[in-house]
Design the sequence.
């Protein structure tokens, strides 16, 4: 049966709303500069990537070939030989973090997970779901983990195999926990590298750091054991997704055999989205390395511009190295609501994602924040 006129109208109204607000976001990290029109024809198929892309699957409508190429790309980007890696296309950053924490807990079942106060809220959910012991570590003013407090808490716990959750770009301040510093401090405390696990949450910055000239350490060559990145953030996709990459030798220990689909499964969910690997595949094929680098350089330049313009207006804005997250004191509710900004602990931020080709929206926001500040300082 066709839809009633009323229902059709409802959909049409939502379409108009989406078109109008397509590029609305200044406060969230979702890039909207994509065109996947080429893939719309696949919406008529029930594509399902149930199980592991590396195994034979009875369910013929899968996009495993594309998922495999996506995983080859990210293994290379995160500096691990493809044959030594294993990972998959997830529902987003949260599932990647869950997979990393699950893997670490299977390796060290009674251990404690250490994460900083600036860690994404998904981790508090994950430790509950996985029932991992956990400790929250203080943060430095710029949002990095407090290394002294991390070491003090690890030492006090007496843990022989600590699990360290490192932020590669925090959600609010865009801060990167320094993997080198953490490993040096662990060595100084008498730990061998094989004694502990580091998962890197690189939801946004995992797609930025490989393309900058002076990245903070973040990849497998730098020492991480697993890493998760979101697909709908820096890359941009119409459906949330992500990628998680881990070491094959660790993943082999958690494989589960399922007779029903005649395959081994290492993933968290049963059915998995078969369309999102196509989006990611098209995204990685669409840009050459140099083009992606230029796209990201543009975002970083816009962030630099925003900080300078805020500062010129007397507003104390700043950003962390290699970050497209510009932090400033939270303006009045009226202003942050108008611009749909995320706010936290007295801060607001603007994220210069790739669909901001000119400075119009950024300028309008800065003018409103400056006017708001002047109004408030007059009233005080
Ligand atoms: C966005 C974000 C997440 C969660 O990612 P989703 O893709 O929304 O599940 C995790 N960690 C950080 C640092 C994030 O910014």
Sequence:
């Amino acid at each position: 049966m066709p839809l009633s006129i009323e229902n059709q109208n409802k959909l049409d109204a939502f379409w108009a709303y989406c078109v109008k607000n397509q590029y609305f976001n200044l406060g969230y990290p979702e890039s909207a500069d994509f065109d996947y029109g080429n893939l719309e024809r696949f919406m008529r198929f029930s594509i399902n990537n149930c199980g592991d892309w590396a195994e034979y699957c009875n369910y013929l409508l899968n996009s495993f070939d594309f998922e495999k190429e996506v995983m080859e790309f990210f293994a290379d980007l995160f500096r691990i030989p493809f044959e030594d890696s294993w990972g998959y296309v997830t529902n987003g950053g949260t599932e990647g973090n869950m997979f990393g924490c699950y893997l670490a807990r299977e390796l060290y079942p009674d251990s404690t997970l250490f994460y900083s106060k600036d860690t994404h809220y998904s981790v508090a959910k994950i430790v509950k779901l996985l029932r991992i012991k956990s400790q929250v570590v203080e943060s430095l003013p710029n949002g990095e983990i407090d290394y002294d407090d991390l070491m003090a808490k690890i030492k006090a716990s007496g843990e022989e195999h600590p699990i360290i959750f490192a932020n590669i770009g925090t959600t609010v301040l865009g801060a990167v926990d320094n993997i080198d510093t953490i490993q040096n401090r662990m060595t100084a405390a008498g730990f061998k590298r094989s004694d502990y696990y580091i998962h890197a949450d690189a939801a946004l910055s995992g797609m930025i750091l490989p393309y900058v000239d002076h990245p903070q350490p973040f990849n497998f060559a730098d020492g991480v054991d697993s890493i998760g990145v979101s697909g709908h953030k820096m890359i941009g996709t119409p459906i949330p997704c992500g990628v998680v990459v881990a070491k094959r030798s660790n993943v082999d220990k958690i494989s589960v055999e399922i007779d029903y689909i005649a395959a081994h499964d290492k993933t968290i969910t049963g059915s998995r989205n078969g369309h999102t690997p196509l989006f990611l595949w098209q995204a990685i094929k669409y840009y050459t390395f140099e083009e992606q680098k230029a796209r990201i350089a543009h975002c970083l330049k816009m962030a630099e511009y925003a900080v300078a313009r805020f500062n010129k207006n007397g507003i104390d804005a700043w950003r962390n190295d290699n970050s497209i997250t510009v932090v400033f004191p939270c303006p009045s509710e009226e202003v942050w609501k108008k611009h749909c900004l995320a706010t936290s602990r007295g801060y607001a931020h603007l994220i210069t994602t790739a669909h901001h080709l000119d400075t119009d929206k950024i300028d309008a926001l800065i003018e409103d924040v400056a006017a708001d500040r002047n109004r408030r300082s007059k009233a005080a």
Summary: The pocket of pyridoxal-5'-phosphate is lined by residues 92-94, 120, 122, 167, 169-171, 201, 203-204, 230, 240, 242 (CB under 6 Å). The chain is about 35% helix and 15% strand. The chain has two domains: 5-30+291-379, 47-286. The longest helix spans residues 289-312.
